[in-house]
Design goal:
Number of strands: 13
Radius of gyration: 26 Å
Structural class: alpha/beta
Distance between the termini: 87 Å
Helix content: 25-40%
Shape: globular
Length: 375
């Protein structure tokens, strides 16, 4: 009899500890939220909700509300629906560019403190978050949150993005000597949103952008497992003719070369207080030449490797000058400087002063391992 009483009491206690029942038809599952800066103190928040109420014709709905904080916006969004808004499936946070130019760390801090929101949630920049979420020109996905998540997830899995989630961004933001980046989503009339480039940050504020393909110069030194992406170069025909690589062609002709990176290795070398070498070796296969050029001759192959290396270094040099002008360091040159014992005392402010005046020399060497479709 006593055993039965003990079992009954335990079952009652377990029942009392159970979480409140959640009826699926009453849930509004948020998959994406976007923030737009309206003025100095006011923001507009927009969410896409998946709903499973059979009485509702639509499986998703978009809601917007204005407020001065993310929590106030959340409260006003709750007032607009009979569903309970849940964040357990929130996959993406969008910030409009104007807002990101003023700083986004306060909003990210709030998100980071929310135990329901995963630290792997995607972050992205767009011109207008509300318009992007309301775009209906997406593919087979039920609503925009699912589409943008799949878009960013595909690029992250292929290692085409440098920083793309909350954890990566916050970690890089809090580290001295390196600046974070985020993907930029373009929203145009008549087409689905797409990744148009990568935003460059100085601390938590956008200061510029770079094309997605040009992030290869960043990934060379920050991620040894990233996919660099196929590289297409345009070289004047006269350059190939001058070096004896190709037969004479009209001076107006341009050679287009597409390369597929096989493997690579990058190294930041601090020569002294004023000079930094960015050394990298990329092994590639050639996918296409326009017009056709044979590289079966070893001498021609070596000359082409040098020519391609020069073209990459020239492009990289222009990008480095732009990064220095913006005083943003996504490559982590400042971090490498601080890793040297005699410079370990340098603060973020010290590095910001040193960085624009540094002489940074790119030194990319190319090895053509396979000639691909040229064979």
């Amino acid at each position: 009899m006593k055993k039965k009483i003990v079992i009954l009491v335990c079952s009652l206690l377990c029942t009392a500890c159970m979480a409140p029942e959640k009826i699926i038809e009453m849930q509004g599952i948020s998959t994406i939220i976007g923030f737009d800066l309206l003025d100095d103190n006011t923001y507009k928040g927009t969410i896409s909700l998946l709903q499973f109420d059979r009485k509702e014709e639509k499986t998703s709905v978009t809601l917007s509300a204005e407020g001065t904080t993310s929590k106030q916006i959340r409260q006003k969004l709750e007032e607009q629906t009979s569903h309970d808004i849940t964040s357990g499936q929130l996959r993406t946070i969008l910030f409009n560019k104007n807002m990101a130019e003023t700083g986004i760390s306060s909003f990210l801090d709030t998100m980071q403190r929310d135990s329901i929101i995963s630290s792997l949630i995607f972050l992205a920049i767009t011109d207008n978050a509300e318009e992007t979420i309301n775009n209906t020109n997406y593919e087979e996905y039920p609503e925009m949150g699912s589409y943008i998540y799949q878009l960013l997830d595909k690029h992250e899995k292929k290692e085409m993005l440098v920083n793309s989630n909350l954890h990566d961004f916050i970690t890089t933001l809090n580290e001295i000597g390196i600046d974070p980046t985020l993907p930029m989503i373009k929203n145009s009339n008549g087409v689905a949103p797409f990744i148009d480039g990568v935003a460059l940050f100085k601390e938590d504020k956008i200061v510029g952008s770079i094309s997605l393909i040009n992030t290869l110069y960043i990934k060379l030194f920050t991620n040894n497992k990233a996919f660099l992406g196929d590289i297409t170069l345009e070289i004047a025909a006269e350059e190939l003719e001058k070096r004896g690589i190709a037969q004479p062609l009209p001076k107006s002709d341009i050679y287009k070369i597409t390369l597929h990176p096989i493997k690579y290795k990058g190294n930041i070398e601090i020569k002294n207080e004023e000079l930094v070498h960015l050394n990298a070796t990329i092994s590639v296969s050639t996918l296409e030449f326009q017009p056709y050029t044979s590289l079966k001759n070893k001498d021609s192959l070596n000359k082409m490797e040098l020519l391609i290396g020069e073209a990459l270094n020239n492009k990289f040099g222009h990008i480095l000058e732009e990064l220095k002008n913006l005083n943003t360091d996504p490559i982590g040159i400042g971090r490498k400087i601080r890793s040297i014992r005699k410079y370990s005392h340098l603060t973020d402010g010290d590095l910001r002063q040193i960085y624009p005046a540094l002489k940074i020399k790119p030194n990319i060497k190319v090895e053509i391992k396979r000639t691909g479709s040229v064979d």
